[in-house]
């Protein structure tokens, strides 16, 4: 059995560190999520607005996709997906996988000591790329259509 690799301890700054080195803490928050310990019972999380917006955007997409699972095909139009109309190309199975993968990516960002949205951004871009490909009817048929053994022939090496 393989042991899980221990996660590094997140950087946690005290209120005193913030007072004495505000510029450094703010600069760090521009690049990664920073934890600020106010006292024993209270803390704050600082992150760049762009990272916050990215997290919120993907949370919304997950919520919309969750709501669309089981929706009749006639109602599954791009307009029903709010800010993520590209989700309309996916069936229930794909939407379920999207919810699972994006949910994990969001969880990883929020619980990560790395403190960046890079992994979340990558997973999201991969899903959007897949949606773009599947939106093309020819590509969709080639990738997801039914294939028969007779559709393929053996060829010889060119001479």
As residue ranges, the low-confidence spans are 1-8
> Which structural class do the helices and strands define?
mainly alpha
| Gyration radius from CA atoms, angstroms | 22 Å
Mean pLDDT: 82
Order of helices and strands: EHHEEHHHH
Number of strands: 3
The strand order across the widest sheet is 1-2-3
Main sheet, how many strands, which sense, barrel?
3 strands, mixed
The DSSP helix count reads 6
Give the N-terminus to C-terminus distance in angstroms: 51 Å
Shape: elongated
Specify the helix fraction band. 40-55%
* Strand fraction: 5-15%
Explain what this protein looks like in three dimensions.
Mean pLDDT is 82; it is low at 1-8. The chain is elongated and about 75 Å long. The protein has helices spanning 15-20, 22-31, 49-68, 92-111, 118-135, 137-144, and strands at 12-14, 34-39, 42-46. It has a 3-stranded mixed beta sheet. By secondary structure, the protein is mostly helical. Strand 2 (34-39) and strand 3 form a beta hairpin. It is built from 6 helices and 3 strands, in the order E-H-H-E-E-H-H-H-H.
Please describe the topology of this protein.
Blueprint: E1 12-14, H1 15-20, H2 22-31, E2 34-39, E3 42-46, H3 49-68, H4 92-111, H5 118-135, H6 137-144
Parallel strand pairs: 1-2
Antiparallel strand pairs: 2-3
Helix pairs in contact: 3-4, 4-5
Key phrases:
mainly alpha, 6 helices
Question: How would you summarize what this structure contains?
Answer:
The chain has 159 residues and is mainly alpha-helical. It is built from six helices and three strands; from the N terminus they run E-H-H-E-E-H-H-H-H. A three-stranded mixed beta sheet has the order 1-2-3.
